[in-house]
Amino acid sequence: MQINFAGTNLSIMNEYDVKKIRADFPVLEQKVYNKPLIYLDNAATTQKPIQVIEVVNRYHSKLNSNIHRGVHFLSDQTTNAYENARETVCKFINASKKEEIIFTSGSTGSINLLAFSFGEQFIRKNDEILITEMEHHANIVPWQMLCERKNAKLKVIPFHDDGVLDIERYKKLFTDKTKIVSLIYISNTLGSINPIKEMIRIAHDRNVPVMIDAAQSVQHIKIDVHQLDCDFLVFSGHKIYGPTGIGVFYGKEKWLDKLPPYQGGGDMVDIVTFEKTTYNELPFKFEAGTTNYIGAIGMAAALEYISGIGLKKITAYETELLEYATKTIDDLGGVTIYGRSPHKASILSFLINGVHMLDSGMIFDKMGVAVRIGTHCAQPVMQHFHIDGTLRASISLYNTKEEIDYLCKAIEQVKTMFA
Ligand code: PLP
Q1: What span, in angstroms and rounded, lies between the C-alpha atoms of 335 and 293?
Q2: Domain 12-47+310-417: what homologous superfamily?
Q3: Burial code of 60-83, b = ≥16 C-beta within 10 A, e = fewer?
Q4: Which among 272, 264, 269 is positioned nearest to 120, based on CA atoms?
Q5: Which of ligand 1's atoms lies nearest the C-alpha of 244?
Q6: Does residue 3 have a pLDDT over 60?
Q7: pLDDT-derived band at 1, boundaries 50, 70, 90
């Protein structure tokens, strides 16, 4: 398969050393049920390269000490590494300054932070919040909880059956009560890459800020918050080859300055008396208590790892694998793929016709193929198609054509068994 990459017509497969990349991921070497592991559950969580594992091990075994609070050697070392990690994230997404980077527990933690703080400050009775029909529950429920607290309204931008958002409908959903738009960039179920730059411009023309859920984006495509001009953006460390329990909440400084803290506790304060507490400056105002500082350092190692390969190359390689997988599965026949957007990341949701997803998933598992089955925390997407769920194969930088062929073999096996 040939794709146009950087002005050439050469296949990225020729210049992308996937064998070398796979050697960085010890988990991929193992067998399950005596079969080579084919890990295609990357949208749920990605595996970790040795470069991340070693950094996390080193901090746990040699350098661990709580940050920002000690004057001793270890605390100093860890604090520096933590603040350097913030700088790494800042550069990775091209934020203006590191004060705009808040470390959280993950995308879910970040969206809850925003929904609470923004809600406290800006949402009143009858105000409106826009999200899409293809959101992950993490970008639905916190806004719903806010709407219940404030008697506000959640409005939904629908998508067409191919997984493309209805932009004309989006424009019509705005009223003078619209206070924020919160958008998934890449759908964790349909793989659609939404036209968020255009959607942000449409919202800004109406003076409405936009939050971007980049949980499924940072690992696949280059994110530049300056270029996108989003007001807020979130992602999780564990989906980008970093540790679990760490994530990022980015906000433009002009917004973060206006938002009240989300949680109270150590480190987020300036002066505490029983009468009144004043708060620390950015970014610490939003980082109450002991953060997952080793997680942040590990996540920075993951971002450096990705930058070392190059996101352009990763996007091109994964796109080629997606195109190969889609064509091969289509050629097999008897499989329904959900999500046919022309702009798509390497996430494939499908059902083998006439076979329950659970049966398919169990046969896949016994063949060593790890995919996810269910609603993928996006029940409204399943409601759109009137189905209970799908199988989801999510492809990442270390997957190969041979693994896609093996996935197809597993599909054929299911079809044979249920014929
Ligand atoms: N948003 C999207 C699009 C996701 O795919 C996920 C997780 O799958 C989340 C948010 C929540 O991420 P986390 O569980 O890491 O907080």
Answers
A1: 45
A2: Aspartate Aminotransferase, domain 1 (3.90.1150.10)
A3: eeebebebbeeeeeebebbbebbb
A4: 264
A5: 15
A6: no
A7: very low
Whole-number Å distance between alpha carbons of 15 and 410: 29
Q: How far is CA 360 from CA 125, 256, 348, in A?
A: 47, 46, 15
User: Over the chain, what is the mean pLDDT?
Assistant: 96
- Give, for ligand 1, the residue of 377, 379, 381, 394 to mutate: max count of ligand atoms closer than 8 Å to Cβ: 377
Ligand 1 pocket, residues with Cβ under 6 angstroms: 106-108, 136, 138-139, 184, 188, 213, 215-216, 236, 377
d(CA 62, CA 5): 43
pTM: 0.96
Query: Which tens digits make up the pLDDT trace of 139-149?
Result: 999 999 999 99
Amino acid identity of residue 132, one-letter, is T
Side-chain-side CA neighbours of 83 within 13 Å: the count stands at 13
Helix, coil or strand: residue 318: helix
CB atoms within 10 A of CB 123: 21
> Where does the chain hold its CATH 3.90.1150.10 domain(s)?
12-47+310-417
- Backbone phi and psi for residue 57, each to the nearest 5 degrees, phi listed first: -60, -45
Dist. CA 247–CA 106, nearest whole Å: 4
Architecture of domain 53-307: 3-Layer(aba) Sandwich (3.40)
Q: Is the pLDDT of residue 5 over 80?
A: no
**3-class SS letters over 340-378:** CCCCECCEEEEEECCCCHHHHHHHHHHCCEECEEECCCC
User: Which residues lie closer than 8 Å to 100 by C-beta, 6 or more apart?
Assistant: 90, 250, 251, 252, 253, 256, 282, 283
Question: 372 C-alpha vs ligand 1 centroid, how far in Å?
Answer: 14
* Local structure of residue 275 (DSSP, 8 states): S
Q: Which of 67, 114, 73 is nearest to 296 (CA)?
A: 67
Mean pLDDT, rounded, for 65-89: 94
Q: Are strands 232-236 and 247-251 parallel, antiparallel or unpaired?
A: antiparallel
Choose among 53, 45, 36: nearest CA to 396. 45
276-323 tens-digit pLDDT: 999 999 999 999 999 999 999 999 999 999 999 999 999 999 999 999
Question: In the chain, pLDDT over 90 holds for what percent of residues?
Answer: 95
* CATH 3.40.640.10 intervals, the chain: 53-307
